[in-house]
Structures are given as structure tokens and as C-alpha cells.
Request: fold
Amino acid sequence: MKIDVERRNNLKAYHSATHLLHESLRRTLGKHVMQKGSLVAPDRLRFDFSHMKPITNKELEIIDKLVNDYVSNSSEVTTRIMTPKAAIEKGALAFFGEKYGEEVRVVSMGKEKEAYFSTELCGGTHVKNTKDIGKFKTVSQSSIAAGVRRVEALRDKQLEDFIKNKEKLSTLSNQKDEETIKELSSQIIKLGGNPNVDNKDLKEIIKNLSRQLEQLNVKSVLQDKSKNIIKDDKINNINVRFQKIQDLPPKDLRKLVDNGKKELGDGIVIVFASSEDKVGLAIGITENLVNRYDAVNFVKLGSEIIGGKGGGGRKDFAQAGGQDKNKIDEAYEKIKSLI
Reply:
């Protein structure tokens, strides 16, 4: 049978890295840290341990540095056969779930004056020298149960590949963000705006530009008399404003209703806005008329006609949605019949 030497060496290195990680966790987070489970694979390691809260970025840096310091120190990994009692008296840690006989194998690494950085009872295979582990880094942490956290780590070639891939993805993401920023800026300039790109974070720039473009689009639509049609009527001695707007997101209706109420002084403001396959309806009634009219009743009637589900609100303001912009005029006529 042929032995896969590369796989075996990777397993050895990840196993030894697990020992160094365990002790680094204990020295950084506290002696309460004890192993609750682990996975040693040829391409990664996973380590579960007792700890009540997430590890901070600063703590992770310290943990990684401790492991890498002992890797760089090129410490010989030693094994000794002892009784379990003698081993534990020497400071050896017993791994979770293991059962030991009269004699145990004690694995130590990381020489510290008269002692070792890590000493554990372990029957598995290990590297001969910590330098064989290679560069080490924790790449994730999570909570898997109450009081139990999990870290995953990579080393050497797998870590290099991980970092290269991460950098590649970051570069691709940055390129995509830059293209998005260019496109948003172009649209803002076409609408007469000045793109706001005063931020180092590309995601934040995109967020700001998207907001800026949305505001300019709304302004542009409201200034276009072919898209923003306003008709003021007098019905039964009541001032009524009917406003119909194309290409305006329904979420902007409240502001238009409030503006209409101010301009009318007293009366009823009925606003329909359509954008793609969505229709919004909002109705506002000035305070002096809420004892005679209810915006909720108006909105429910209008919503049914434009294919909505009723909407809701208060007597002075109500809002609803629908899907059929071709029935906006019909809905308005029905609402008018209630005034």
C-alpha cells in the first residue's frame, strides 16, 4: 500500500498546530479554555473550546502571533512515555474525550527555559520541529453552543492560497465597485448634479451616490410637467387636488401630500404615483375636514380599483398600493364621488 506522504505531513503539521493553538488560546483568553472537540484535516484545522464570548480582533492577533513565534523559533517536538499522573503533574493537558492507560505519550513543543510552551497527552503523529508547521492564521470564529466557540485555521500552502484568493476576490469586488461608482456619477452629472465621492470606503460612496441619484430623479420627475400632472378642483365647495406622477417610487408620496395640503390651505389631496409595475396612492385631509371625511375610506376604495389590498392609515392621512396604473383615473373618479 502506497502512503500519501504529502497528506500525512499536512496532517502532522495541523495536529501540532492544534496543540500550539490550544495553549495560545489558554494564555490569551484564560485558563478556563478547554478543548471541546477538534478536526485535524490535511487542508485545515477546526478547534472547539469553552469560552463565553466572541474573541476580539486584538485577541486573535495575539493568538496567531504566539503560534507563529513558536513556529519561527524552530523548536524540537519531544515525546516522552509517562504515567498519566506524572504527566499531569508536569503540567500536561489531557484532550477532551480521550481515555488513557497506565502509560501515556506526552508531546511537548516550544521550549521555555525549564519547561515547554505546550505539553499534552497525545497519541497522534506530529512534526519533528515546529518550523515544519509553516505560517499559521485563524481564519474564522463562531459560536456552536452556549459557552462553546469554534475557530478554524490554515497554515503554509493552504494559507497562501486562501490569502491570494481573498485578495483576488477583493480586487474583483473593488473593480466592480469602481464601475458602479462611474456609472452612478455619470447619471448624476446628466441630471445636473455634482457626484459626492468624498469617502475612502467604496461601499459607502456607492450608498451616498445611490441616495443622491434617487433624490435627483425625484426632483427631475417633479419638474417634468408631462410626468407630474396636478389638477386642482372644487367639489361640493371643498378644495381637491389630484396629482398623478409617472416614474416616482411610492415611498415619496407622503412628502407630496404634505406639500399639497400646505398649498391648498384646506382641502383634500389625492396623489397617485406609478413606477414600473407598482402604483402608490396617498390621500391627505386637512385638519378642519377630518370630522367630515376619512382618508382611510378613500384609500380603501381607490386601492381596490388599482389592484391593491386596502391600505390603511389615519383620518388625516392614509396610503395604499396597487398594480394597475391604467385604472388611476377611474379610481380618482370613484374617490371624487365620496366627497
Notes: The domain at 5-157 is CATH 3.30.980.10 (Threonyl-tRNA Synthetase; Chain A, domain 2). The chain is about 40% helix and 30% strand.
